[in-house]
Amino acid sequence: MPRATVQDSSRISLRIRPEDKALLVRAVSYTHIDLTTFVLQNALEAAKAVIDEAERIALSDRDSLRVLSALENPPAPNQKLLGVAHRC
Prior knowledge:
The protein has helices at 18-31, 35-55, 61-72, 79-87. The protein has 88 residues and is an all-alpha fold. The chain has one domain. The two termini are 28 Å apart.
């Protein structure tokens, strides 16, 4: 999993084009919350979605049944696996 460098600060600096800031401020005016809260809430929601997509495995019904079957009825170990097990 990729790791981003995190500094010892709770602040984030952000450079933004004036028209982008105007758009954010306009959206904020409809929500009745401050700009920081608006940006943070939406950034956190987007971050959670990205992490969920990257860390979740979605299986079809067929593949789910194959995994469950393999767990319930595992194949016999092959020679290579047995050799490694004996060395440990």
